[in-house]
Amino acid sequence: MKVYPQADSYERQPVNTSFNSVTMINEEAVFSEPLPIPQIDTVNSNPFALIAGGSKGIGYSVAEALAKRKYNLILIARHKDSLISAKEKLESLYKVHVEIIQYDLSRKEAATEIARWCMDNNIPLKILCNVAGFGGSKDYLNGLSLDSLRYMINLNVESCMALSLTLLPLLEKNAPSYILNVSSMAGLAPIPAKNMYSASKSSVIFFSYSLRYQLKEKNISVSVLCPGPVYTKPEIVAETKKKLGFLGKLMAMKPERVGEVAVKKTLKGKLVIIPGFSRVVSWVIRFLPRRWVVAVYGKLGG
Hints:
The chain is α/β, with parallel strands linked by helices. The chain has a single domain (15-300), classed as Rossmann fold, CATH 3.40.50.720. It is 46% helix and 14% strand. It is built from 10 helices and 10 strands. The strands form 2 sheets. Strands 2-6-5-4-7-8-9-10 form an 8-stranded parallel β-sheet, sandwiched between helices. A two-stranded antiparallel sheet has the order 1-3. Helix 1 crosses helix 8 and helix 4 (146-166) runs parallel beside helix 6 (195-215). It is globular and about 55 Å long.
């Protein structure tokens, strides 16, 4: 069995959390009345990592990699069923405590409410992972409505910015600590068929660079993950093979591997994380003039 470096232990006061319930913050966000939250003694327990978008795909794989290192988890996502499934699996496999919060992170009040819940319950937060995102085959001038485009910007950019800001006091309190923002290789260059998606992911990259500089004196490390194709859905597999062919097969990775690489390099303090063969492709993309890269992506259909 592989041995993973474990989270540091902390001497803490009791923390208000719930083992068996979905935490409910706001009735408008599809919640019923909150369930009672029992006291849990966390003296000398492991710290927490919060994963926004942590119930499926890359987010779940990041959560799993952290659970292997004995971090307790807070998973946030929109869908209750996937959250409960993720909680049960992670707690069973890794014997960690998992809190789940059902919330639409595109809502303007999400970051404030989540941060308040963490502070009210004295969560010893050590790692923030901003994974939640939205994208697909439809985009700007390509079949996506204005409301959906706004939702993309709110989820991909605003939620990342807002959670990093509102949870900063807890991360500073528990320093050395970490922020992992999830972007994409699509953020390294403009892509005509994925115009707003690539623009939003580019924002996450630039934000992460600057935030790392701003927080270096606070002993908070900021990393940004920029994966190539990740086989989280069957349609992604089909699209990757159709548009990128053999190169796509070289670049594509399973989410489990992406999550493990992301966590390992985040804990080592690496700024830009590009897993696998995509790292080689990224060098070419960043070296060539952007107008050339746009033209190539245009020929490939985005």
